[in-house]
Amino acid sequence: MTQIDHETTQVEAAAFRRLLRHLLHERADVQNIDLMIHAGFCRNCLADWYREAAQARGIEMTRDEAREAVYGEPFVQWKQRHQKDATPEQLAAFEAARQRQ
């Protein structure tokens, strides 16, 4: 790996950690369904991508372990504290967003 590749990796990792902190501490109020509607991904997607990246490097990781890395705690606990039931409006917007893909 060249120095540039290593530095790029470090920058990308720092940006990812900042995104996680932002979602955990500054915007825990933003629901996953809203992220899916507006951005096309959510915290669970990040956890899946995290697990896939680990597995591509030979690191075994369960879905629950990946979610805990993204949520900062077991998903069940985060869900109890932060996740609300989706409103009919959110469900309709989610379906409309899926149709656009």
UniProtKB/TrEMBL annotation:
Lineage: superkingdom: Bacteria
SMc04008-like domain: residues covered: 30-95
SUPFAM superfamilies: SMc04008-like (SSF158757)
InterPro entries found in the cross-reference section: SMc04008-like_domain, SMc04008-like_sf
Gene3D superfamilies, alphabetized: SMc04008-like
Protein name per the record: DUF1244 domain-containing protein
